[in-house]
Write a structure and sequence with these properties.
The chain is mainly alpha-helical. The chain has one domain: Up-down Bundle (Four Helix Bundle (Hemerythrin (Met), subunit A)), CATH 1.20.120.910. It has five helices and no strands. The two termini are about 30 Å apart.
């Protein structure tokens, strides 16, 4: 990415925007902690839930959904923590790939953004073109697809 183009196309957030985004991130962090989804999800089955095979299957589906929601909350919590650390060290709002500014509008829409819109679009294009050996963007694990 060309940092000069990035700066021209996407104005940097102001100090006021940064403080607003900090409060937004801190509030989201507190909400997740208060909700408790990142800490524990109840996977136990009640005796009443194990009446028959259909009930057991439905309980399994419900547990899977709870686990996915908990995983999403955990991932979002991690991204919030990383964004707050970037705010502390002064790198918040700088693209992790090109070093250019992440535009104020992008940060307002996605306060945890690590990439400017151009780098994010390039990353998504590469991901869509390369299914084999693609790094799973949610968990950070390499997914080994054999096609």
């Amino acid at each position: 990415m060309n940092q000069a183009n990035n700066l021209k196309l996407a104005p940097a957030p102001t100090a006021l925007n940064i403080e607003f985004l900090r409060r937004l991130l801190e509030t989201a962090r507190k909400d997740i902690l208060a909700n408790g989804k990142t800490i524990r999800v109840d996977f136990t089955l009640d005796k009443d839930e194990m009446l028959d095979e259909v009930d057991l299957a439905m309980a399994g589906i419900e547990q899977g959904m709870k686990m996915r929601l908990g995983n999403r909350e955990s991932l979002y919590f991690k991204k919030i923590e990383e964004a707050l650390l970037r705010l502390q060290d002064g790198s918040y709002g700088l693209c992790a790939d090109c070093g250019g500014q992440i535009g104020a509008k992008r940060l307002e829409a996605r306060p945890t953004a690590e990439l400017c819109i151009e780098c994010k679009e390039q990353t998504e294009q590469k991901e869509s073109l390369n299914a084999e050996g693609r790094r799973h963007k949610s968990l950070g694990d390499v997914v080994d697809f054999k096609i």
